[in-house]
Amino acid sequence: MGKRVPVVLLVLAALGGATWYFLADRGEAGPLTLYGNVDIREVDLGFRVPGRLDAMRFEEGDRVSAGDVLAELDPEPYRQALRAALARVGIAEARVALYRSGSRPEEIERAEANVREARAALRNAEQELERQRGLDERGLTSESSLDLAETRRDEAAARLRAAEEALALARAGFRDEEIAAAEAELELALAEAAQRQTELDDTRLTAPSDGTIITRIREPGTILAAGAPVYTLSLDEAVWIRAYVEEPDLGKVAPGTPVHIETDGSPRRYRGRVGFISPRAEFTPKSVETVRARTDLVYRIRIIVDDADSGLRQGMPVTVVLGAPDGAPQAGRAAEPAGTGSGAVRG
Fold first, then answer.
1. pTM score, whole prediction
2. Do 293 and 287 form a contact (C-beta atoms < 8 A)?
3. Angstrom distance (rounded) from CA 240 to CA 235
4. Under a CB-based contact definition with an 8 Å cutoff, are residues 45 and 229 in contact?
5. Which of 15, 32, 48, 55 is 20 to 30 A from 195, comparing alpha carbons?
6. Looking at domain 82-197, which CATH architecture does it have?
7. CATH 2.40.50.100 in the chain, residues?
8. Distance CA 206, CA 48 (A)
């Protein structure tokens, strides 16, 4: 019996240790700890228009600010296209001005002169007709001469009517439909010129926001298609942490929950907050393993880093403590990454 007592004590001690380890793993001894990776947006930058690459102004690793000119295409073809479009605008503007102003005073004066001339011709034709009729009554002219005089009178009357109509048109100017058509042509020319100006502006590639050049893809002299990437830019904001939480711990995580973030290579603790919790469960990804089986369901969460700096880099593994004040112990049940998978989010 004396030898059995130490054995019983050892068994009880082992059971106590296992129980303590299990409770610690269940997160009952401290705040929930998760493990994730830094997630920084990257964007491939390219021109909206095709052309020959004229200049690349930055190298890999260079810091850029929003609005900096990163690269340029040869602008000359687009300048020529803009000049042609502006010339068409000038033509359309002149046509609209002509239609709105109507006929020139000189044209109206000429139309009035034509009317006066046609009236005089009609008076002469009528007088000749009257003279022929008088001669016909006395039998001193032929029937054919009388018919000829009547024909000339009718022709003069017709020319007078045409001259009067031409004068009325000259005084009235152009029709509303003609003016509307000219104005529509002007709008079309202006839109084309604006498009050519936009294309010329697009020969300069600018940084959309502050960041760091990750990749310089092209070199000057390259003929580029529209949209072909020339730089890859890593944006300064926003910096996120991608982590996973197991279903039993979902009640401890809510949007807005404050967190502290630690890296392996720096003593600094970053501040952040939970910004997103996936509504859909998924099986534990290959880059994540837990103390449970791999087939356990987890939920992806996004943590927004409030005071990020250059110490956080794409794909870096980090430790996330939810709701833990400074100096609090980091304990609890966690979903821990097996590797340093980047989890890159490309903008």
1. 0.59
2. no
3. 12
4. yes
5. 55
6. Up-down Bundle (1.20)
7. 44-75+202-230
8. 12
Look at residue 184 and give its three-state secondary structure: helix
Dihedral of CA 241/245/249/255: which sign? positive
The predicted structure's pLDDT at residue 340 = 37
CA 237 from chain center: how many Å? 20
| Degrees, nearest 5: CA angle 188-194-197 | 145
Q: What is the CA radius of gyration of the chain?
A: 45
**What is the reported pLDDT for 344?**
35
Closest CA to 114 of 168, 173, 164, 169: 164
336 or 153, which is more confident: 153
pLDDT band at 342 (very low <50, low <70, confident <90, very high): very low
> Hey, is 81 helix, strand or coil?
helix
Give the whole-number percent of the chain exceeding pLDDT 70.
Answer: 78
pLDDT for 44 equals: 95
| Nearest residue to 52 via CA among 34, 74, 35 | 74
> Residue 36: its pLDDT value, please?
85
CATH of 44-75+202-230, one of 1.10.10.60, 1.10.3720.10, 3.40.50.300, 2.40.50.100: 2.40.50.100
Q: Which is nearest to 127 in space by CA: 170, 156, 84, 89?
A: 156
DSSP 306: S
Q: Do β-strands 345-346 and 33-46 pair in parallel, antiparallel, or remain unpaired?
A: parallel
CATH superfamily placement of domain 28-41+238-346: Efflux pump adaptor protein, beta barrel domain (2.40.30.170)
Helix, coil or strand: residue 244:
strand
User: For the segment 47-59, what is each residue's pLDDT rounded down to a tens digit?
Assistant: 999 999 999 999 9
Mean pLDDT of the chain: 80
User: Would you state the pLDDT for residue 345?
Assistant: 36
Distance CA 281, CA 296 (A): 10
* Strand ranges inside 161-247, DSSP E: 204-206, 211-216, 223-224, 229-246
Q: Could you tell me where in the chain the CATH 1.20.120 domains are found?
A: 82-197
Q: Tokens 């997630």 belong to which residue?
A: 39
121: which residues sit within 8 A by CB, 6+ positions away? Answer: 156, 159, 160
